[in-house]
Write a structure and sequence with these properties.
The chain has ten helices and ten strands. With 278 residues, the chain is of the alpha/beta class. Helix 2 crosses helix 3 and helix 6 crosses helix 10. The longest helix has 19 residues. The radius of gyration is 19 Å and the shape is globular.
């Protein structure tokens, strides 16, 4: 438990009330684009979200599939307390929420029909024990659904040397804090190594540009900036990076929707796999 405890202490986004609300808004942003896309769940299915944080994604799933049996786990008690209140406010009263270590799940073998995970493994230096636990508590025939990105795929046009500096530093900060900014590319390999079958790990690109979808471009930039801005002071505090350059890079990034002929994109690497048998 020590390793994961250290990682949560270094979690780059923190656990403030503002961050918890940002997680709710983030889930709203990705609701149709990613969280519910191609998701097939049946009434009565038991689904566990590992690293459930503020309960934002569980709320999306519970409202879209009201007959699911929901469960979630997070190492931070404050996150679970917030999640419980958030879900109760949505009318989701019977959610099995627990404080605990994702590499030592407090559930018996073959307990869930589905495991769900989003924007979590990027903060973990060694995800294999977590995936092994997911395999253990999943029923034969059950599925695991993972969603992660690759921070190198957050691209803009026009390009900016200072933005590239900011992007490089963000990747370095995540590694310094015990994470992996490139984890999306590895999901399929990790699932195969864990023993899952029928593994699919294909990229989904999201690209926005000035013109008919200018509002989508602005929404995307503001979404990224909402989680980026609170982290960038750490680039100086922890990594001793050039504050003038990363500030310039962040300001240029936020100005993208106001520039002529501008665009921005990201690639997400969803992974889906099945536990065929023990």
């Amino acid at each position: 438990m020590e390793a994961q405890s250290n990682q949560t202490e270094n979690y780059i986004h923190g656990y403030t009330a503002q961050e918890q609300q940002r997680l709710i808004e983030q889930a709203r942003y990705w609701r149709e684009k990613l969280i519910l896309r191609d998701v097939k769940l049946l009434p009565g299915d038991r689904i566990l979200e590992i690293g459930c944080g503020a309960g934002a994604v569980l709320g999306v799933l519970g409202q879209a599939f009201p007959q699911l049996q929901l469960a979630g786990i997070d190492l931070q008690a404050s996150q679970i307390a917030y999640a419980r209140q958030h879900l109760e406010n949505l009318g989701l009263l019977e959610v099995d929420l627990r404080v605990g270590n994702a590499s030592q799940l407090p559930w018996t073998d073959k307990n869930f029909n589905h495991i769900y995970n989003i924007w979590f493994l990027e903060h973990i230096s060694n995800p294999e024990p977590i995936l092994q636990e997911a395999y253990r508590v999943l029923k034969p025939g059950g599925t695991i659904m993972l969603n992660e990105t690759d921070y190198r795929t957050i691209l803009i046009y026009p390009e900016s040397a200072d933005y590239r500096y900011l992007q490089d530093t963000l990747c370095e900060l995540l590694i310094y804090s015990g994470g992996n900014p490139y984890i999306g590319r590895r999901l399929g390999l990790l699932l195969q190594k864990t023993g899952f079958s029928r593994v699919n790990n294909s990229p989904w690109a999201f690209h926005y540009f000035q013109g008919e979808n200018s509002q989508e471009l602005r929404d995307f930039i503001e979404y990224i900036y909402a989680w980026l801005a609170p982290t960038i002071s750490q680039m100086t505090e922890k990594l001793r990076k050039d504050e003038k350059r990363w500030r310039s890079g962040s300001e240029f990034f936020r100005s993208i929707p106001d520039l002529q002929e501008s665009a921005a994109s990201i690639v997400v690497y969803p992974a889906l796999a099945i536990k065929v048998s023990d």
